[in-house]
Amino acid sequence: MKISLLLLLITALCQTVSNAQSRTYVLVHGGWHGxxxxxxxxxxxxxxxxxxxxxxxxxxxxxxxSPAGVTLDEYTKKVVQLAKAQTGPVILVGHSMAGVVxxxxxxxxxxxxxxKLVFLNAFMPKNGESVFALAAKAEELNKAEGKPTxxxxxxxxxxxxDDKQTSRVDLDRVAQLFYHDCSADDVAxxxxxxxxxxxxxxxxxxxxxxxxxxxxxxxxxxxxxxKDLDKRSIANNVPIQKMYTLASSHSPFFSxxxxxxxxxxxx
Length: 267
Known about the structure:
Blueprint: H1 2-22, E1 24-28, H2 41-46, E2 51-55, H3 72-84, E3 90-95, H4 98-109, E4 114-120, H5 131-144, E5 158-160, E6 166-169, H6 174-178, H7 184-193, E7 197-198, H8 200-203, E8 218-223, E9 242-246, H9 252-255, H10 257-266
Parallel strand pairs: 1-2, 1-3, 3-4, 4-8, 8-9
Antiparallel strand pairs: 5-6, 6-7
Helix pairs in contact: 3-4
């Protein structure tokens, strides 16, 4: 009897390890950021045998594409290409603006390739919605519900290029906006790596369907102390499997990577 129980425990443990090793996470950064923002998350996820791919979207990080004129379609194609290069299903994790990117990529890849969509304090769209549209809708709902607006607002922190095709974040204000609970070293690291954001991507609506995007399980991770925008209404914009909360800024990958990874591993 004891031997049988021991064998069952060993089998269960081996299955857990096997499941962890078979997981592939594709991490997609938000606006102005790059794959560099996941530097603490990647090694923590890899410790349980998971495969992890952190992407530089076109025009970001080490990707040398000129950011001026980069489109949502180009973002989507890069995510799709890298996801298809992985063996088996993937879990797409999108932070902030990248919620729209992983939604559009999921529409292309389908439920056979995408096991789950994880929206990390991200814009989670319905068909025909863009980042700008979702942000405007959330701001209107927050105002109607009497929720206080954060200062400085994201729009107050943006520095548009002369041709209006890209923007940068005001480095004098970005710590309060994105990283108020992060260490001084992490803030300095982020400031040194933040880059221009193609603006056209933010205004482009997604084209998604119930049969593809709608059929993929979705999880939302809400950062309850984020100061860029209260996204509680966005977390309920489409049906989700589960919502998790982190009492963090918009950047839990810096301020509480262990807690973020614990959620990702529990999916």
